[in-house]
Design a protein that fits this description.
mainly alpha, 3 helices, globular
Length: 59
């Protein structure tokens, strides 16, 4: 699943960082918190790695 916007790609990156233990889960807010709770590390990695050059800022 690819990100549909830059905001979604960034939220996935934040959630992925928390999944990997690089940042605190308590630091997550909004969409990144929901993604952390509902998506696997592999799903987050795929979404976070989406090339964001051609994506809109928000969906």
């Amino acid at each position: 699943m690819k990100a549909q916007s830059k905001a979604q790609q960034q939220a996935a990156g934040a959630a992925l960082s928390a999944k990997r233990g690089e940042t605190k889960v308590s630091d997550l807010q909004g969409a990144s918190k929901e993604m952390y709770d509902s998506m696997s590390e592999a799903e987050l990695e795929e979404m976070a790695s989406t090339d964001h050059d051609d994506l809109p800022n928000e969906a």
